[in-house]
Design goal:
Length: 466
């Protein structure tokens, strides 16, 4: 379906006595199309409305949600709305309705790589939504230069610790490594200098030797040297992040790994003539075999246990058994968990609190309930000693407790003291009289007891429970 402005442009150029061939070159349409328009066929033909035009608001809304990615639009229209629109038809509708602009760039050049010769690694910041909160995450990517097989993961920050965590996972994902890994010139892996002559940080150089990898930065200003990994960041941002939600870092990286396996590495690339997964089958025999045992990546810390039974790591607090209060413990900080050791024995393991501050993680059984908390449950000992001897006394105790704060321990102790101090009969008579008049002032109760004693000697016999 030709737009009216294109028809008018053809007619206008012809009126200026410009030939059919030149009009075709200027407007980028075929000569037969130009001839049909000049013969009047295009002007007279009624434009047939697309049967998908009624879905225009839905397509436009989904396109905005997917940040302009037509592939994700097609997937969401089918999964969420039951509209199975062919991809070619969808893109034609989007062009005809001018829902997006085509901004394809021409490739400036190519690099050729032998199988198993090189991997490329880089990072890029990506804004995304995590658990309903907007954050800026560091997208780490590694690609096999020959087969273009891709692996990506996300981290809140990207230091040498995260770099080793990512590269270990990436080499395991590839099930092999290459002798050369092209990187940029940032200080995460480079200690000093730039380009191929840069000095690699000793800990990263030692880490690379575990996998038989040498890190080589590209020349300053020659980012195209690792274009195999650079071009994927736009693909990840527009395809993987578009139309997806994530609850936490674990969920984000799990979805990223699944996307690499199910989408990115199965899509046919024009430059390869096949998918990265198919090219990987040919490259796999040339990859270096991984060592039989790959140790986990962790940082070793030493922390003292505070008086509340916690150790501090990255502003967060992790519980340990109370018997270790005051001891100095060895802590292994891994990417997803915290392991705590005392005399080479693991005493606790916590899920690491990533991207959080001033938060506690307490494991069940580490901190027993305080004795004070257990003591404050149920009636106090004095109340139990007072009750069960006389029905009026039991009622007086209940009414007295209602008028006291907390569990009424102070009032119960004073009433129990009066019971032990004075004879039983005057004491009970005074309690019945006080209960009758609703009098719960224990000082006045004591005066009433004295009036009932009527000259008898005080009860000075000691109670066995005192």
């Amino acid at each position: 379906m030709m737009k009216q402005d294109m028809v008018q442009a053809i007619v206008s150029l012809k009126e200026k006595e410009i030939g059919v061939r030149e009009i075709s070159r200027i407007l980028g349409v075929s000569r037969n199309t130009v001839r049909r328009v000049l013969r009047g066929k295009r002007l007279d033909r009624a434009q047939r409305a697309s049967r998908y035009e009624q879905l225009t608001p839905l397509i436009q809304e989904t396109l905005t949600f997917c940040k302009g990615n037509a592939v994700r639009v097609q997937e969401l229209l089918k999964d969420a709305h039951g509209q199975d629109i062919p991809y070619s038809t969808l893109t034609r509708v989007m062009r005809d309705l001018e829902l997006r602009e085509e901004t394809r760039k021409k490739r400036s050049g190519t690099y050729a790589f032998e199988p198993g010769a090189e991997t490329q690694h880089d990072t890029s910041p990506h804004p995304l939504e995590l658990g309903g909160k907007k954050v800026k995450a560091q997208c780490a990517s590694l690609v096999l230069a020959y087969s273009r097989k891709l692996f990506v993961q996300y981290y809140p920050t990207f230091t040498r610790f995260e770099a080793k965590v990512f590269l270990r996972e990436a080499f395991l994902f590839m099930d092999g490594s290459c002798p050369r890994c092209t990187i940029d010139n940032t200080s995460v892996i480079v200690a000093r200098g730039s380009g191929p002559d840069a000095l690699i940080a000793p800990e990263m150089e030692h880490f690379g030797k575990i996998f038989g990898v040498q890190f080589i930065p590209h020349e300053v200003g020659d980012a195209n040297r690792k274009a195999g990994v650079e071009r994927n960041f736009s693909y990840v941002e527009k395809n993987f992040l578009a139309g997806r939600t994530f609850t936490d870092w674990k969920d984000l990286n799990a979805q990223a790994r699944a996307w690499c396996i199910q989408v990115a590495n199965r899509k046919t690339k024009r430059s390869l003539g096949m998918s990265p997964e198919a090219a990987y089958v040919m490259e796999k025999p040339y990859l270096q075999i991984l060592p039989p045992y790959i140790p986990p990546v962790y940082q070793t810390l030493h922390r003292g246990v505070d008086v509340e039974g916690y150790v501090h790591v990255d502003t967060n607090r992790y519980s340990v058994p109370e018997r270790l209060i005051g001891k100095e413990l060895e802590i292994h900080k891994l990417w997803d968990r915290i392991e705590i050791f005392w005399k080479q024995q693991k005493v606790a393991e916590h899920e690491r609190l990533i991207d959080k501050r001033e938060t506690r993680s307490t494991l069940q059984g580490h901190h027993l309930p305080l004795h004070r908390q257990r003591a404050h449950q149920g009636p106090c000992k004095e109340q139990r000693d007072l009750q069960g001897h006389s029905e009026p006394l039991d009622r007086y105790v209940e009414e007295l407790k209602k008028r006291s704060s907390g569990r009424g321990m102070r009032q119960m102790r004073k009433l129990l003291s009066l019971k032990h101090t004075y004879p039983e009969n005057p004491f009970l008579q005074a309690v019945e009289q006080a209960l009758h008049y609703g009098m719960y002032d224990l000082s006045r109760l004591e005066q009433m007891i004295l009036s009932h004693v009527a000259g008898d000697f005080f009860n000075i016999q000691e109670d066995d429970e005192i």
